[in-house]
C-alpha cells in the first residue's frame, strides 16, 4: 500500500506540474526574446517581464497553497500595498520562496520580485536569459565584478524608479547543522554575535544595497522576514521541492507548519555609515534567532 501511495503521489505531482512547466518554458522564451529589446526600451521590458513573472509565480503559488493545502500563517508588521523595498530573510529550504512570494502576492508586488542569482545562470539558454531580461541581479564571489552588476541593477531602480522588491537571503546559503557549527566557530574567533537557529549574515551586499537605494525616493523600507517550519515535532524541517509540488494536505495529514514573521523598517531610519549598518544587520539576526526560539517553544507545547 505504501508503494501504491508513493506512485499515486508522484503521478499527482506530474499532473499538477506539467502544465506549469510548459507555461514556464513559453515564458522563458518570451523573456529571452525581450532581452535585445532591453537595449533601447528598458522600461517596456521591465514592466512586460514583471507581468510574465507574475503569471509564473502565481501559478506555482496556487499549486502550493490551494492545490496542496499549505496553510501559511503570518505575524509581525502589516506590509503596505505596492511599496518598493529591500527584503532580507533567513534561508532554510526551497519552500522559502513560497513564503516570501506569499507576502509579495498579498502586498501586490509578486511580479516585481527580483532575487539575487548566480552569475553563471546568465549563459543558460532561455532560463538564464529570461532572468537577465527581468533585471535579476547576477552576482558571483568576485566583489569587484559584483559591484558593477549591482550598479547596473541599482541604476534601473534609482534612475527609472522601477517598483521592486529586491530580495536576498543574507546568510548566502541554506541553514544546516554543520553550517551552523561552522558559523558558531567563526563568530567565536572573530568576536561576532552568533544568532540562535541561524547562520551569521553576510553584510557586504546588504550594506551596498542600502547605501545605493537610499538614492531612490520610492524605495521606502527594509523588510526583514523570518521563516519558520515544523514537521510533526521537528523544528526547522520543511518539505523538499518535489514534496511541495506533489503532496496534498501539507498542513493537514502531513502535519507541516509554515510561518513567516515580518518586520518593516523605514530606510530613512537606518544608520548612515557602513560600520553601523553591519551592526544593525547583526542585531536583526540576533532578534530573529530569539523569535525563532520563542516560536519553537510555543509549537512544542501545542
Short description:
This protein is of the alpha/beta class and 302 residues long. It has helices at residues 2-34, 42-67, 96-106, 127-134, 143-160, 177-190, 204-213, 241-246, 274-300; strands at residues 72-76, 84-89, 113-115, 117-118, 138-139, 165-169, 219-231, 234-235, 256-266. The radius of gyration is 20 Å and the shape is globular.
Keywords:
single chain, 302 residues, alpha/beta, Glycerol-3-phosphate (1)-acyltransferase, 9 strands, 16% strand, globular
Q: What is the CATH T-level topology?
A: Glycerol-3-phosphate (1)-acyltransferase
* SSE order: HHEEHEEHEHEHHEEHEH
Q: Tell me, what is the CATH class?
A: Alpha Beta
Structural class: alpha/beta
Strand content: 15-25%
Query: Total strand count, please?
Result: 9
What is the CA-atom radius of gyration, in angstroms?
20 Å
Count of separate structural domains: 1
Helix content range: 40-55%
Describe the largest sheet: 7 strands, mixed
Q: What is the count of helical runs?
A: 9
Q: What distance lies between the first and last C-alpha atoms, to the nearest angstrom? A: 31 Å
Amino acid at each position: 500500500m505504501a508503494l501504491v501511495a508513493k506512485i499515486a503521489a508522484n503521478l499527482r505531482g506530474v499532473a499538477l506540474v506539467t502544465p506549469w512547466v510548459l507555461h514556464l518554458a513559453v515564458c522563458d522564451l518570451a523573456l529571452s526574446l525581450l532581452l535585445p529589446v532591453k537595449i533601447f526600451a528598458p522600461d517596456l521590458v521591465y514592466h512586460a517581464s514583471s507581468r510574465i513573472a507574475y503569471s509564473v509565480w502565481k501559478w506555482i503559488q496556487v499549486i502550493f497553497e490551494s492545490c496542496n493545502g499549505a496553510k501559511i500563517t503570518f505575524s509581525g508588521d502589516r506590509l503596505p500595498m505596492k511599496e518598493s523595498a529591500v527584503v532580507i530573510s533567513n534561508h532554510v529550504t526551497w519552500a522559502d520562496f513560497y513564503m516570501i512570494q506569499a507576502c509579495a502576492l498579498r502586498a501586490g508586488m509578486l511580479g516585481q520580485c527580483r532575487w539575487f542569482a548566480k552569475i553563471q545562470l546568465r549563459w543558460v539558454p532561455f532560463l538564464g536569459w529570461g532572468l537577465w531580461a527581468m533585471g535579476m541581479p547576477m552576482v558571483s564571489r568576485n566583489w569587484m565584478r559584483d559591484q558593477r552588476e549591482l550598479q547596473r541593477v541599482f541604476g534601473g531602480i534609482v534612475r527609472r524608479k522601477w517598483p521592486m522588491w529586491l530580495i536576498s537571503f543574507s546568510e548566502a546559503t541554506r541553514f544546516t547543522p554543520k553550517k551552523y557549527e561552522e558559523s558558531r566557530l567563526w563568530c567565536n574567533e572573530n568576536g561576532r554575535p552568533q544568532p540562535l537557529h541561524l547562520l551569521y549574515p553576510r553584510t557586504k551586499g546588504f550594506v551596498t544595497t542600502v547605501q545605493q537605494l537610499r538614492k531612490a525616493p520610492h524605495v521606502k523600507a527594509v523588510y526583514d522576514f523570518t521563516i519558520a517550519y515544523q514537521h510533526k515535532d521537528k523544528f526547522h524541517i520543511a518539505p523538499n521541492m518535489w514534496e511541495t509540488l506533489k503532496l496534498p494536505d501539507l498542513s493537514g495529514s502531513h502535519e507541516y507548519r509554515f510561518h513567516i514573521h515580518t518586520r518593516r523598517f523605514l530606510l530613512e531610519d537606518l544608520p548612515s555609515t557602513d560600520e553601523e549598518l553591519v551592526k544593525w544587520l547583526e542585531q536583526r539576526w540576533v532578534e530573529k534567532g530569539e523569535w525563532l526560539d520563542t516560536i519553537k517553544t510555543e509549537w512544542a507545547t501545542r
